[in-house]
Amino acid sequence: MYEGGTQTLEERVTQLEQEMQEVRQSRAVKPIIESEIPWWERIYGTFAGSEEFLSAMRAGREYRESLREPDPDEEEQASPQ
Question: Rounded to whole angstroms, how far apart are CA atoms 48 and 74?
Fold first, then answer.
């Protein structure tokens, strides 16, 4: 609880309101939609050197390759005639 001082209650409230306004302005964050920087540029490099990321990329590539039809030219080269 406040115990005396030279400021009146009104002066203290005014000062607190000004300080709160400064805090709000300093912590103001633009919504993502209004950001000038595209999302892909904001996250670029986030996973650089991450073993988990590289593992996920390998798994995705292996899965996509497993869905492909075998290439007849590759089969001919692989089997001896």
Answer: 34
CB of 39 closer than 8 Å to CB of 49: no
Give the Cα separation of 58 and 49 in Å (integer).
Answer: 14
* Residue linked to tokens 């996920």: 56
- What is the CA angle 65-53-62, rounded to 5? 10
pTM for the predicted model, two decimal places: 0.39
For 26-35, the pLDDT digits (tens) are 777 666 566 7
- Distance from first CA to last CA of the chain, Å, rounded? 95
Between the alpha carbon of residue 24 and those of residues 6, 16, 20, 27, 44, the distances in Å are 27, 12, 6, 5, 29
Residue pair 38/30 in contact by the 8 Å Cβ criterion: no
